[in-house]
Amino acid sequence: MNNKKEQIILAALQLISERGYSSTSVQDIATYCGISKGSFYKYFSSKEDLLMEVFRYNHHQVVLHSEKIERREDLSKREKLVKLIAFEMEVLYKNRDLFLLLHKVVPSHENQKFQPIVKKTKASMIRIHKKWLLYVYGSEVQTVLWDVVLMWQGAIKELIILLGESIRILDKEEAAEKLVDRLDMAVQHMKTMEPILTSDMMEKHEKQEGEEGNEKEDELQNWFLLFKEEVRQLEFQNETEIMEALHLLKREITRGDPQKILIKSLIRFIKTETKLVHSLSWLEDVLEKNEYNY
């Protein structure tokens, strides 16, 4: 993904969160990026095509942040869960219009192209929530795991729908703490009950995630997108050099025969900015696992 396409995605995310999807035109996005409307269509065939990319980017924010929280050593498992839910609420609330739009779009037969990505994203969030519940509660939640996943997702969804102009939750972390309190109670009271949802019933949802595209390549693309945005926000004096190093790093990782010495050197250079060390750990982990034939 080139820099201009990334810029358009980030601009669209910003404008949609501020104005709403229906009030944000292609011309608005192009003007915000300093390009012509014609140039916009070199990167995206339509506003709807861009919407899918924005939705994918937004989802990967949650995925990558989830992994970042899990690696923190200064928090207990329960505290990590609170942080994750608070972040989910913040991202979804900030992009509430996008969230509501896509959940309205999916049932419509006029927008079949949106359905695969939204279904895949739902399956991905189910996987993440399932993983976290097992991580925090262990065997206690095993028999009613899917019921608790449903409670978690239902609570978040309804909160986002309700949180409009008339209802506001200023402290997302406090709200997340209360939600985790309720998950604690649910696990304790439900663990001896017969589950509503069984593993057999949910099997097709777990399979859904792997049916569309290549999840790992999507994650890598979005990691670079998010990391570049982090670099811009931190306003380093050597930002140009860091961006060039990231460009070379991405090109080297995704080529057929990557040079490990070059990759390690580029990572080492970027890590000279200590504020970026933690965010780089996700990339280092996947490279260590050889998930990109590194």
TrEMBL record:
Signal peptide: none
Keywords for this protein: DNA-binding, Repressor
Lineage top rank: taxon: Bacteria
HTH tetR-type domain ranges (all copies): 2-62
Gene3D superfamilies: Tetracycline Repressor, domain 2
A single MF term (Gene Ontology): DNA binding
DNA-binding region: 25-44
Annotated protein name in UniProt: DNA-binding transcriptional regulator, AcrR family
Organism this protein belongs to: Alteribacillus iranensis
